[in-house]
Amino acid sequence: ANLVAYDKVLTLFGGDGAVNPSQVADFCSSNVQWCDLCLSKVLTGREAVKSHVKLKFPEGSKLVLERAAEGNLKSGFTWHYEVPGIQGVGLRGTTYVEVDDDGLISYVKECSEPIMKPGKLTAELLKAATKNVERVVKVPTYAPKDPKSAPDLVEYLWKDAYPGGASPDEAIRLFSESIRYEDFNYEDPFLGKDEVSCFLKEFDFPGIEFIPDRISEGDRGCAFTWRVSINGQDGPEGISFYEMDEDGKVCFVRDIPAPSIKPPPLQALAATLRPRLRVFSPRP
Prior knowledge:
By secondary structure, this protein is an alpha+beta fold. The protein is 26% helix and 32% strand. The strands form 2 sheets. A 6-stranded mixed sheet has the order 2-1-6-5-4-3. Strands 8-7-12-11-10-9 form a 6-stranded mixed sheet. The protein starts with a helix and ends in an 11-residue tail after the last helix. The model has no long low-confidence stretch (mean pLDDT 92).
């Protein structure tokens, strides 16, 4: 099978870690749209992309591709920065990629982790915002499924099960016992099904609607963009990546919300002080 988008991702970002701005621009269409959720506006065209990539990857920086969605026209990948000779991991993020019929990159949306993570305050703020919303007991209208690919699982959970009245238990049923769940509102990942179950149920209250937007193709991996509706009002947007293991269970999730202030001040400061890592201190 052709995997044009996936191959582009591997060629541009899956090598020795050195990102070539000119090559990235050459692989883009003339009217490419590049949406970095940490910027206040969408970049359009090859020259804008080239300048952006050059700024993000100064000489000596290294981008490590962690996992990628095996898609033909729609792919995506998770990544982090490293610097040779410095122990630890720098800024982490996720990128969603689409190619056109000519095999050129036509659309990108990406986001990186916030430097300051609100942690448990996230759930408390959302609860406060939805405190007057009454929970409506829904009669489930979805038919339980066991999706065989990561994109099918994303479609099932977010377009079928949850809108059809599913509880978090339906998602947890599809998770691996050893799942690693990275929600970048939190400093540390949630490890194992029990931790993830407690985390998800903390957000199980009315008034919050999670709406998927663009969903990649793939087999074991899927990147997708989303937005949140809070009491019917537009909330944050973001990007996620799901990975399935050989048993068809979700073994990895990464959720990244877009910052409310763009560019985020602490991230901009970290990029100025430590441009090759883009964090104040590397993560072990």
